[in-house]
Amino acid sequence: MENLEQKILEIIQDGFPLEERPYAALGRLLGVSEEEAFGCVERLRESGVIRRLGGVYDSRRLGYISRLCAGVVNEGMLESFAAAADKIPSITHNYVRSHAYNVWFTVIARSEAEIQETVRVLEAETGLHDAHVLSASRMFKINTVMKATASAQVTDKLVVDKMDSKGVESFVPDAKDRHRINLLCQDIPHTQTPFSDLGIDIEEIRGDLDLKIMRRFGAVLRHQQAGFDANAMVCLTVADTEGAGMLLAENPHVSHCYVRSPFEGFPYNLYAMFHGRSGAELEQSIGSAVSALNGPDHVVLTSLKELKKTSFVYFA
To answer: What are the DSSP E strand ranges found in the chain?
Structure first.
């Protein structure tokens, strides 16, 4: 990746200019022309490094809930399971991981009943079985921004989110809000004036950030194409979830960290997503983190295959 591309990615993940001509502003920051800045971002989008450029919203504030689901699919039925899940818009992420519970997917919906129904349909129509729907009772880190430097690979303006997953104050949108959010949670136009082309007032976008219904506005990356080739979900059994969660949230290799309830055959209560530029770096970072927690019982679920990774479209 060229130096200009790296610099642009560092900026636009959480600092895409909210201006009428954002690429002109980006060019001024980098000492290049508007056309050069726009062309560089477009190349990153076309190559797949940037999966989406837009708003990252807080599902809970918008009245939605998100659940991580785990289950088992026999290897010969993975393809049909993936195809079925791909057709369900509420499923945003779907991975095969190195464990007996080999499929892990995320569902976003308006209610617990809707999520349970989604899982029931998959069990009825695919090889999915022994499925578990997992809520998060505590969230320590979310909203990933991947940086190029090894010392600060995963950063976040909201490094530790102490809000309980329940009892979050909802934002009640009107028709105009729903229209704006629906547009901004998707990929913005590939033009030099994306906001005016969408017909959206930039002050309204800033308002979404101020109200914290939007976590950030910027580029959502495909981590592997951006140079983070290795990742794994590490699940631990700890007595002090608060202390361990806070410590993991400070780790530059960790992007997400949650407390979840154990279930039969899976006795772990703290989940953390680790990222690295190589398998060796990933293994070293996980080993150091586990040692810092005094070696609790844990399991490393390496990502074997990405079946689906999309952004949820609100108010569709």
So the answer is: 50-57, 65-72, 91-97, 103-109, 129-134, 136-141, 145-146, 154-155, 214-221, 230-236, 254-260, 270-276, 298-309
**Alpha-carbon torsion, ordered 154, 158, 164, 165, to 10 deg:** -60
In angstroms, rounded to a whole number, what is the distance separating the alpha carbons of residues 70 and 241? 21
Q: CA-CA distance, 178 to 73, in Å (whole number)? A: 37
- What are the pLDDT digits (tens) for 5-55? 999 999 999 999 999 999 999 999 999 999 999 999 999 999 999 999 999
| Residue 70 near residue 103 (C-beta atoms within 8 A) | yes
pLDDT in tens, 138-148: 999 986 676 65
Residue 8 near residue 26, CB atoms below 8 Å? yes
pLDDT at residue 160 above 50?
no
Neighbours of 162 (CB within 10 A): 12
User: CA 251 to CA 197: how far, in whole Å?
Assistant: 40
Rounded to two decimals, what is the model's pTM? Answer: 0.89
CB burial of 4-19 (b: ≥16 within 10 Å; e: otherwise) equals: ebebbbbbbbbbbbee
DSSP assignments along 283-314, one per residue: HHHHHHHHHHTT--SEEEEEEEEEEEE----T
Q: What CA–CA distance (Å, rounded) separates 58 from 63?
A: 9
Tokens representing 292 are: 């810092």
Cα(274)–Cα(286) distance, rounded to whole angstroms? 7
Query: By three-state DSSP, how is residue 262 classified?
Result: coil
Q: Which residues pair with 138 in a beta bridge?
A: 259
Q: Are 242 and 140 in contact (CB under 8 A)?
A: no
Quick one: which of 154, 155, 94 has its CA closest to 119? 94
